[in-house]
Amino acid sequence: MKRLVVLGGGESGVGAAILGKDKGYDVFVSDFGKISEKYAARLNEEGIEWEQGNHTEEKILNADIVVKSPGIPPTAPIVKAIAEKDIPIISEIEFGGYYTDSKMVCITGSNGKTTTTMLTYHILQSAGIDVGLAGNVGNSLAYQVAREPHEVYVIELSSFQLENMYDFKANIAVILNITPDHLDRYDYKMQNYINAKFRILQNMKPTDAFIYWQDDPVITSQLERLAVEAALYPFSEKKEERSAAYVDAENRLIINGGQTAVNMPRADLALSGLHNLYNSMAAGLSAAILDVKKEVIRKALSDFEGVEHRLEYVATVDGVRYINDSKATNVNSCWYALENSPKNTVLILGGKDKGNDYSEILPLVREKVKAIVCMGKDNTKLLDFFSGEVPAIRDTHSLDDAMTACRELAHEGDTVLLSPCCASFDLFNSYEHRGRLFKDAVKNMLK
Questions:
Q1: pLDDT tens-place string over residues 339-367
Q2: Is 350 exposed, middle or buried (0-12, 13-18, 19+ CB in 10 A)?
Q3: pTM, to two decimals
Q4: β-pair partners for 85
Q5: How far, in Å, CA of 49 to CA of 26, rounded?
Q6: Are residues 83 and 138 in the same domain?
Q7: By C-alpha distance, which of 347, 399, 401, 335 is closest to 373?
Q8: Do 86 and 104 sit in the same domain of this protein?
Q9: Phi/psi at 111 (nearest 5 deg)?
């Protein structure tokens, strides 16, 4: 019996463990942190051995294969020890892919991944397709392959997940954009991050499809050096050579994918803003390539309800609009939020800096932001960069203090925007945790 060791006892790890059990592996799950009650109970129900708070080397280094949580860096001591033993290390997505022939729609990019993934899933569901949602959203792919199989999967893939994918093949691959992110993981070398993103194109064939933003300089530069076998479906705001999706002179969205052609007023899109136009193009192209009817695509693009924590309106308090964009964990994502924001915005920034260069958002900050509230354990970098660039800047170290500062700085007609540019892990458990607490704090103001 082959031995499968799973590092990480979260959604992806427990899913991989269950699939491994069903396929006859001797399975052991090890998490250096604490496994939540939900996942501990599931492992116990399945009779899968697990540990938390430690990595017991004698139970790990005898593995035939290791599935690693994407959040564990390759520099972690246990990962180094596994590599030294030449034990294969793969991702949960790779492992799930071993045991299914379903079609895979795989989406990556520095920004817009979740919205595009959810929108694509919404279109395919609306078309009556048997579709599963996996990756950074939904249930783990491995678990669905084991217990809830689908004909098509829509998968949001981070660069971390792509690092340990080797034989997996996307039928449709989407790269929305590439801007600096997670550089602390990649030795502060942008090319290392780019290389991780482009692993999504591995193993693709001429019958597969690659959808990408053709005005992204990083993507176009990389494509000049690569031979991509898949059929190319670039999208752009205005029609360019080879554009498969664009907006025409009459402000209509045009999508030409496979045998399906979609034509609809841009104003009918459920999601506003330039970044969401691109997300809608990528999702629409994916659906068109899968031969979804144009009427279904048009309707689904117009009735999608959006993604929590991404430019999410929370409430208006004393005439001030509060917007939750906690999912903006990098600078480019904040740029899109500011591009969609009015003047007289109070911007909440801060968290765990990932090697950020804030110069990208500086012109929009100067144009639209009346005050910045820094919210993090250490705001030194933000204070040094933005001091003198806005009329007011505050240094806060908790959500309560940040909200107090926002109430003092924002007046009727203003907007408070939580779009932090940073990871959440200094003060919060996740960007979802940060967003939920922000929304709770805003709603408490109404009481």
A1: 888 999 999 999 988 888 999 899 999 99
A2: buried
A3: 0.80
A4: none
A5: 9
A6: no
A7: 347
A8: no
A9: -145, 150
